[in-house]
Design brief:
Structural class: alpha+beta
Oligomer: single chain
Largest sheet: 9 strands, mixed
Distance between the termini: 27 Å
Mean pLDDT: 94
Low-confidence stretches: none
Number of helices: 11
Shape: globular
Radius of gyration: 23 Å
Length: about 525
C-alpha cells in the first residue's frame, strides 16, 4: 500500500481582501519549514506572483526541494498579456466569471494558458509539469496536457457552495483521469479520457465534511452550505487540532484504500503565516515521524502524477474505510469509488445505510465545454442516485436504508474489509447485513425476514429530485446539474425488484430476491 502526501504551497501575488498580509514572507516561511524537515514540495505560482521577480527568485533558492508549477487562476496582468479585457473588481477577483478559466470562451482560455506557460518558461527555462486550481474545466485540462505535456493537476475537495464553488459527486479523495466532456467525472474509456491525473486537495474529514453542519437543531437544510473540516492548518476544529490530525492520519493511512491513500498538506499564502502557523508546523512534525517509520511517502505533485500514470491506464478503484470517529458520536464510514460510481456508507446510531450514491458517465457534459460562466458561481456535478446532503430536508435524513417491518435495521457492531487484488470492499453489521462494493456492482444481503431497501426522502422537495419513473428492474432518473440540458440515466437491478408509488418515482423501495439486492452500476 502506497501512502502519498503532497505538500502544495500555492501562492498569490496580491490579496485585495487584506492588503496588509505578507504574501511573500508567508511563502518564504513555508519553504523554510519544508527545508527544516527535508520535505520535497510543490510551489504553484499564480501569474501575479510569477511576474514579481522576488517570487521566482525565492523558489529557485529552494529548488533542491521545491518544484514550481502554475496556479491557474486568472488575474488582471494575465488577461492583459492575453489581450482580453479584465472584468474583475480588483487585480485578482475570486468570482468564477472573472477569476477562473471557465469565465472565458474556450479560445480565450487557450490564450490565457499560452500566456501563462510562456512566461513560466521564460523564467524557469521549461514549461510547468504541474498545474492546480480550485477548478479547471475539461477543455483547459486537455489543452494543457496535449500542448504542454502537463503530467498532474489538483483541484478542490468536494464542497457545496463554499466561496460560490460547487464540486459535488466526484472522487472523494485520491486521483482520477477525467472525461473529455466533464473534468469532474472519471472517464470510463480510454477514448474519452484525459490522461492527466487530477488529485483532490485539502484532506476532507471522511465522516463529517460531507454533511458538516447538516441537522443542527434537528433541521436538515443544505441551503446553508457547509462548514469546513479539513487538513488545512488554519481550522481550529480540524487541521490546527493535534488530536484531529492524529486521528485523520491514522484513519486515512490505515491500509484500507485499495490502490493508494492520499492527502495534500499546505496552505495558500493569502491566509498569512500567523494563521497558517497554528497548524502547519505541528502537522510537519507528525509527518516527519511517519516518514521516518515508512508510513508515508512525501512526494511532489509531479512525482505522484508520474507514479499514477505508470501504474494505472484507467482510473483505479479506491476506498476510505474509517474505523473510528474523532467526534463523540463515534460514527464510522466507508467511501468506495471506481470509474463507474461512488458510494458512501455511514454507521450511526447502530444503523448502516447508503448515505450517498453517484453514477459516473463520461457522456454527462459539464457546462463549460462550449460556453463561459457569466455568474459569480460555478458548478461541477456527477449523476445522483442518492444524496444524503442535498436531498435532506426538515427532519428527513435522506438515504437508502435497510428496513425490517417498517423499522430501520440496527446492530451494535459494524465492520469493513477490503481486497486490493479484486478492488472489492465489504462492509456490514456482523453477518446479518453485508454490503459488497465492486467493479460494476453494489450488493446488499440481509438475513432478516421481510427486509427491504427503502429510499427515505422528504416529500416536500419531490420536484427537485432526479427520479422520473420505475419498473421492476430499472429506476429512471434525469439530472441537469449546473447545465441547461437534462441528462437521462438509470439504475438497474441484477437481483431484486423495484417497488414504488407516488409522483416522480417517490416512495421507492427494493424487495430482495434470494436474500439479496444487486445493483448494476456503469
Amino acid at each position: 500500500m502506497k501512502n502519498i502526501v503532497n505538500i502544495i504551497n500555492f501562492a498569490r501575488g496580491v490579496e485585495p481582501r487584506d492588503p496588509n498580509v505578507d504574501l511573500w514572507g508567508t511563502l518564504e516561511t513555508e519553504l523554510k519549514l519544508c527545508r527544516e524537515y527535508g520535505f520535497v514540495n510543490t510551489v504553484l505560482l499564480q501569474y501575479d506572483a510569477l511576474i514579481q521577480p522576488e517570487y521566482p527568485k525565492l523558489v529557485k533558492q529552494y529548488q533542491d526541494l521545491s518544484q514550481p508549477g502554475l496556479w491557474m487562476e486568472v488575474v488582471e496582468p494575465l488577461a492583459q498579456v492575453a489581450g482580453i479585457p479584465w472584468r474583475g473588481r480588483w487585480p485578482w477577483d475570486w468570482h468564477s466569471d472573472v477569476g477562473f478559466l471557465i469565465g472565458y470562451e474556450p479560445q480565450e482560455r487557450k490564450r490565457l494558458i499560452d500566456a501563462a506557460f510562456s512566461k513560466f518558461r521564460e523564467i524557469f527555462g521549461h514549461y510547468p509539469s504541474t498545474v492546480g486550481s480550485w477548478h479547471i474545466d475539461a477543455v483547459s485540462l486537455d489543452y494543457m496536457r496535449q500542448q504542454y505535456g502537463v503530467v498532474a493537476s489538483c483541484n478542490c475537495k468536494d464542497q457545496y457552495g463554499t466561496d460560490g464553488y460547487t464540486m459535488w459527486g466526484g472522487y472523494y479523495n485520491g486521483a482520477y483521469y477525467p472525461s473529455k466532456k466533464n473534468m469532474f467525472c472519471p472517464a470510463q474509456t480510454l477514448e474519452n479520457q484525459i490522461s492527466l491525473p487530477v488529485f483532490r486537495m485539502l484532506g476532507s474529514d471522511p465522516i463529517h465534511q460531507y454533511d458538516f453542519g447538516l441537522g443542527q437543531q434537528g433541521n436538515y437544510d443544505p441551503s446553508n452550505c457547509q462548514g469546513v473540516a479539513t487538513l488545512e492548518p488554519i481550522y481550529d476544529n480540524a487541521g490546527a487540532d493535534p488530536q484531529w490530525v492524529d486521528w485523520y492520519f491514522k484513519e486515512n493511512f490505515n491500509g484500507k484504500s485499495l490502490c493508494f491513500a492520499y492527502t495534500q498538506a499546505g496552505q495558500e499564502n493569502s491566509f498569512g503565516w500567523p494563521d497558517i502557523s497554528k497548524g502547519l508546523p505541528m502537522q510537519f512534525e507528525k509527518l516527519k515521524r511517519m516518514q521516518e517509520l515508512g508510513e508515508v511517502e512525501i512526494e511532489t505533485l509531479e512525482q505522484s502524477g508520474r507514479w499514477f500514470a505508470g501504474h494505472y491506464q484507467t482510473t483505479p478503484a479506491a476506498a476510505m474505510c474509517i474505523d473510528s470517529d474523532y467526534s463523540p458520536a463515534q460514527n464510522k464510514t466507508v467511501w468506495y469509488y471506481n470509474r463507474f460510481y461512488r458510494t458512501n456508507l455511514l454507521f450511526e446510531a447502530n444503523k448502516l445505510w447508503i448515505r450517498d450514491l453517484y453514477l459516473f458517465d463520461e457522456q454527462f457534459e459539464e457546462k463549460y465545454l462550449d460556453e463561459k460562466e457569466t455568474q459569480n458561481l460555478c458548478g461541477f456535478y456527477n449523476l445522483p442516485v442518492m444524496d444524503g446532503f442535498r436531498f435532506s430536508r426538515g427532519v428527513v435524513r435522506a438515504g437508502i436504508y435497510p428496513v425490517v417491518n417498517g423499522k430501520d435495521f440496527t446492530s451494535p457492531a459494524a465492520y469493513w474489509s477490503c481486497t486490493e487484488g479484486n478492488d472489492t470492499v465489504a462492509a456490514g453489521l456482523g453477518e446479518d447485513l453485508v454490503y459488497r462494493m465492486e467493479d460494476h456492482r453494489l450488493t446488499v444481503r440481509c438475513r432478516a425476514e421481510g427486509w427491504r431497501l427503502v429510499w427515505k426522502l422528504p416529500q416536500q422537495t419531490a420536484d427537485a429530485l432526479p427520479y422520473q419513473s420505475v419498473t421492476p428492474k430499472e429506476l429512471f432518473l434525469s439530472f441537469a446539474g449546473y447545465t441547461r440540458k437534462q441528462h437521462r440515466y438509470s439504475l438497474k437491478l441484477e437481483q431484486g425488484v423495484f417497488e414504488a408509488a407516488g409522483p416522480h418515482g417517490s416512495n421507492i423501495s427494493v424487495r430482495p430476491e434470494n436474500g439479496a439486492v444487486v445493483f448494476r452500476l456503469g
